[in-house]
Amino acid sequence: MNKFILAAFITTPLFGCNSNDGEDIIVDKVGLDISALTDQQKQDYAQISTDINAFVLYVAGTCVDKQEQINADFTTLRCNIVDHLTDIAKTEYSTITLVDGKLDITRENNARFIIKTDEDVKFKAPTISSDTLRYRLSSDNSITVQISGEDEQILTTSFRGFYTDGSLSDNGSWTTESIKDQSFIFTDDENTQLIALTEGQAKLIGKDKKSYSWSTDTMGKVVLK
User: Fold this and answer.
1) What is the pLDDT of residues 27-61, one digit of tens each?
2) From 55's CA, which of 22, 85, 121, 183 has a CA 20 to 30 Å away?
């Protein structure tokens, strides 16, 4: 079991005076046109936006495990995704390939981690794009992880991130964020090598501030609201 496996973290609002106003304007003006998406496309975008966070968490957990073997008291860590591509896990409901990116991991205490990116995470998701997609976790965008439990550790996570599809120059950006007090549980199955974010709620925000929300079931499959 990945040591990063962590329960119930109450998220804080991520919008406000210090939020990513520039990115919000980009999404609002030239963002993904949600009104033009079919229900299947909404399902695909939501599943991929959820699962990419599971991948980032998995890689971050691998880096944390290795760093703790060297220095158990570390507070900051730079993690290069390409160093872990050969032993990457899988998601069940979307096809995603990680390509590149560096994660900046801060341990605020023994049970709370913050993941950001100095460089965009690059990945491919052929279900929604033929091009390379980019995922940014900077400024107020981040993935927050909380560990709870003693005998069986549980990992809960909240996130807000900015996505860009390079093949859609006119409407290729969107933001996803978990809904306050509805954090996801990270699951990591040693037998199947499947990872997922389960039992949480999130929403996708696109052009003209239009959005839609979803939840994930106990297996990590998206259920549109």
Assistant:
1) 988 899 999 999 999 999 999 999 999 999 999 99
2) 22
Q: How many residues are recorded in the chain?
A: 225
Neighbours of 190 (CB within 10 A): 9
Output the six-digit token pair for 11.
């998220």
Do residues 135 and 163 touch, judged by C-beta distance below 8 A? yes
Give the pTM: 0.88
- Phi then psi for residue 94, to 5 deg, are -145, 155
124, with CB counted inside 10 A (0-12, 13-18, 19+), is middle
7: tokens are 């329960």
CA gap 126, 53 in Å, rounded:
17
